[in-house]
């Protein structure tokens, strides 16, 4: 069952990477990266159950926190930092 | 081939795809986002290889801080990469190919991953495992090596990183506050 979950997570990882590569707007890319971080957390959890290494779950939790803070930081920077082109409402 | 290996191969394949995309893409914001994904992937690979401390560093520094630093740099420069004007792409390709071939050749006599007979596990590691609980008393041996046996080394590293952090803050942070103050005056 964990193997099937791992494969399903891999499939969604492929989709997230595709959106990061294609992503017409900046927000698509940010959201894809956020989703990819979540998938990394999930795949580490799946590996933890698959190989019976429960200490990996702590790492997965820490990744979830890092991912959340990182996305908040990127969004905040995108909103308040000045990009030379594009900006609010015109990415 | 177990699923563990399949996950390994898939993660490395993702990394190769993203590296190619980083080279091809001209939108630098997208490149910064792709670097973040690349760091997350390599952190996942490190986690699978049981190097949790390296994986933590990679996730925090690679996916977190360096993305922010790249975005901060992008606010100072252009968001589009200029087209490459180098006339002869053959020379870099040859250099890279030869270097890569030499690196692959160099891996041929590396001991297998996790081999207990590898030289790195025979040199000083047995002494740390034997004596560090009584000498230092920290349960985690990596911590006792980093913080006690190689304490001066770690102090030097911390100094280097602190200096680099101060330099980056001086370059990025100060200018931003000044510009933001000026902008606020304009809007007022």
Can you characterise this structure?
The complex is a heterodimer of chains A (91) and B (188). Chain A has 91 residues and is an all-alpha fold. Chain A contains three helices and no strands. Chain A is 79% helix and 0% strand. The termini of chain A are far apart. Chain B has 188 residues and is mainly alpha-helical. Chain B has a domain at 1-81. Chain B is 78% helix and 0% strand.
Give me the secondary-structure category of chain A.
Answer: mainly alpha
**Helix proportion range of chain B:** over 70%
How far is the first residue's CA from the last residue's CA of chain A? 42 Å
Mean pLDDT across the residues of chain B is: 81
Number of strands of chain B: 0
Oligomer: heterodimer
Share of helix of chain A, binned: over 70%
Mean pLDDT over all positions of chain A: 80
Major beta sheet summary of chain B: none
Global outline of chain A: flat
Poorly predicted regions of chain B are 175-188
Summarize this structure as a short list of keywords or feature phrases.
heterodimer, A: 91 residues, mainly alpha, 3 helices, 79% helix, 0% strand, flat, B: 188 residues, 8 helices, globular, disordered C terminus
Task: Briefly say what this structure is.
The complex is a heterodimer of chains A (91) and B (188). Chain A is mainly α and 91 residues long.
Which helices and strands, and how do they pair?
The complex is a heterodimer of chains A (91) and B (188).
Chain A: H1 2-22, H2 26-51, H3 56-80
Chain B: H1 3-24, H2 28-48, H3 52-76, H4 90-106, H5 119-122, H6 125-135, H7 141-149, H8 151-187
Helix pairs in contact in B: 1-2, 2-3, 7-8
